[in-house]
Amino acid sequence: IKSKILSLERKQGCENKKTIVFDLDETLIHCNENVQQEHDLKITIKFPTGELAEAGINIRPGRWSY
């Protein structure tokens, strides 16, 4: 677990405030490589090899409630 620890810099004046981190994978957003399926928006992903892929992104209802 120690290898998964993330150290975040705190802005001045926010040293005593809490930070919440969301794991967005399959929780608040969902990526589908089949762009023919219904989606909220479409993005192009460029891989380190230079290969491009299109993906449909679905954003879960209520995601702005946090």
UniProtKB/TrEMBL annotation:
InterPro entries the UniProt entry points to: FCP1_dom, HAD-like_sf, HAD_sf
Limits of the FCP1 homology domain: 18-62
Coiled-coil stretches noted in the UniProt entry, renumbered to this chain: none
One Pfam family recorded for the sequence: NIF
Annotated transmembrane regions: none
Database matches in Gene3D superfamilies: HAD superfamily/HAD-like
Protein name: FCP1 homology domain-containing protein
